[in-house]
Design a protein that fits this description.
Layout (H helix, E strand, L loop, with lengths): L9 H25 L3 H4 L4 H8 L3 H22 L5 H21 L9 H24 L5
Helix pairs in contact: 1-4, 4-5, 5-6
């Protein structure tokens, strides 16, 4: 297929568009938490808010890589760029390390449903990376 123009499949637009929305919310959540936005954080228990705001700096960096990598990966996917895959891979690894750290931290407050939501986030991040890799191998991404 090299040298020929590969038609953009319809599902790229669906996956990319939904990915932008999904990952933009992750970026919004990160930004509101990092800036300690009182209105946004109000529904969360004080114990959880204190935990987030006292995390080590490296965890904030890993979290940022996870969420912003996903958003940039979705944009790259819509632009049909091969670097969507490494961005999604970085997003998945960022989410894995960030959530793994929280899960293994004995001092992390327990929140009902958090483990399930973490698995959903990880699954979506992994599927986005695999999807971009598949499109890249099919030469849809350039």
């Amino acid at each position: 297929m090299s040298g020929s123009i590969v038609k953009t499949p319809w599902h790229l637009w669906v996956v990319g568009g939904l990915g932008v929305l999904w990952n933009a919310f992750g970026c919004f959540d990160f930004t509101m938490t990092a800036t300690n936005n009182a209105a946004y954080l109000e529904p969360y228990p004080q114990e959880l808010r204190d935990y987030w705001l006292n995390m080590p700096a490296w965890t904030w960096v890993i979290w940022a890589i996870g969420v912003f990598g996903g958003l940039l990966g979705s944009i790259a996917l819509l632009l049909r760029r091969k670097f969507a895959y490494p961005l999604f891979a970085a997003s998945f690894l960022g989410a894995l390390v960030s959530m793994g750290r929280s899960y293994l931290d004995k001092e992390a407050p327990a929140v009902e449903g958090m483990a399930f939501m973490s698995l959903v986030i990880l699954a979506i991040a992994l599927l986005q990376a695999l999807y971009a890799r598949w499109l890249s191998r099919r030469e849809v991404l350039r």
